[in-house]
Design goal:
Radius of gyration: 21 Å
Strand content: 15-25%
Structural class: alpha/beta
Oligomer: single chain
Shape: globular
Strand order of the largest sheet: 2-10-9-8-5-3-4
Number of strands: 14
Number of helices: 9
Number of domains: 2
Distance between the termini: 38 Å
CATH superfamily of the largest domain: Type I PLP-dependent aspartate aminotransferase-like (Major domain)
Bound molecules: pyridoxal-5'-phosphate
Order of helices and strands: EHHEHEHEEEEEEEHHHEEHEEH
């Protein structure tokens, strides 16, 4: 292995704790002394059943979910979730309400519109998704209200969650486990694993069974969340390795002090970076200050002509993945749970050094 230290700000798939990578490598050779690789064992075997149960339990424990909530891990990414949600929660003549706060929210809206009447009740599209809409009304005859807690591409985040008169569904792909949430306020929380929870390949669904299976639609069992929950996430072969590595990461979060500690660390990292963006005249944030994402800070150089020189400097410092999404440009420093504050300090030092040379 190379000894060069890489500071990985990748937006997803993203950095995971080093000890998780070590344990995950070992399990490919021999899962906990079973003599079998995690990759070759039946998902119905005792050792894997224990992995699944532990992963499900840790999701609920870390988020403080009510006992009766169900956890399933499916393939297909959060993008499949965009389609499953209207199928599972919207009645044939019903309607759904959505907040449009960015690229992923927009994709969720498009999928819902394929299934039935879809109302956009809040949007920040007028200002290129640079803020979080507030004070909007959610109609009480909608079957559910869907929003995206953290806008991974545009770098905004709901600091306070909306109050909804109808079941609330949230795509938390990019900030799940980054802070405490009141799970019972949500009918469903879901997210792709590859940003905070684990590797790509699994999507977690945390569901209130009381508000599930009420859409009165005939849906295929493979798309039916109630079916997956009833089968304990084993209706078909689950993404075993992604579930295993997620379990390790969830255990790591618990050992570190849980989501309260993650929130403390994430706040410190975000403050360090945003302070530099605000302090150095070369740089500028791209979003409303009060809505700044703790997970995916975005910023630009006021003089874009300086970008190539800045790029050279951070690449030389071992930094990876801070180029902004192709639809936004500029920079995005994704700072998921496993990114140490030391890496953020390296980036801030590079920004300071660049400002001294060019400022
Ligand atoms: C990355 C991301 C997605 C897409 O996830 P896939 O697993 O690639 O389908 C959806 N929503 C948000 C908020 C994301 O950050």
């Amino acid at each position: 292995m190379s000894s060069t230290k890489v500071h990985n700000f990748s937006a997803g798939p993203c950095i995971l704790p080093k000890e998780v990578f070590e344990k995950a490598s070992q399990a490919v050779l021999d899962l906990e002394g079973s003599g079998l690789s995690i990759l070759e064992m039946s998902h119905r075997s005792k050792p894997f059943e224990a992995v699944m149960a532990k992963a499900q339990g840790l999701v609920k424990e870390l988020l403080g979910a009510p006992d009766n909530y169900e956890v399933v891990f499916l393939g297909g990414g959060a993008s499949l979730g965009f389609h499953l949600i209207p199928l599972n929660y919207m009645r044939p003549n019903g309607k759904a309400a959505y907040a449009n706060t960015g690229e992923w929210a927009g994709r969720a809206i498009k999928e819902s519109a394929r299934v039935g009447e879809t109302l956009v009740v809040a949007s920040s599209e007028d200002k290129n998704f640079s803020y979080i809409p507030k004070g909007f009304e959610i109609p009480n005859d909608a079957d559910y209200f869907h929003f995206t807690s953290n806008n991974t591409i545009f770098g905004t985040q709901f600091k306070a969650f909306p109050k909804s008169p109808v079941p609330m569904i949230c795509d938390m792909s990019s900030d799940i486990f980054s802070r405490p949430v009141n799970v019972k306020d949500f009918a469903l929380i879901y997210g792709g694993a590859q940003k905070n929870m684990g590797p790509a390949g699994a999507t977690v669904y945390l569901m209130d069974p009381e508000r599930l299976g009420k859409s009165d639609r005939k849906i295929s069992p493979v798309l039916d969340l109630k079916n997956h929950a009833a089968k304990g996430s084993m209706y078909n072969t689950p993404p075993v390795y992604a579930v295993y590595v997620s379990m390790l990461t969830l255990q790591w979060m618990k050992d570190q002090g849980g989501v309260v500690e993650m929130e403390r660390r994430n706040a410190a990292k975000a403050k360090l970076l945003y302070d530099a963006v605000d302090r150095l005249p070369l740089f500028q944030g791209t979003t409303a200050v009060e809505d700044r994402s703790v997970m995916n800070p975005t910023f630009v150089m006021k003089d874009a002509a300086l970008e190539p020189a800045f790029d050279e400097l951070w690449k030389a410092a071992g930094i990876n993945g801070i180029r902004g999404h192709r639809s936004v440009g500029g920079y995005r420093a994704s700072m998921y749970n496993a990114l140490p504050i030391e890496s953020v300090q390296v980036l801030v030092d590079v920004m300071d050094e660049f400002a001294k040379k060019r400022g």
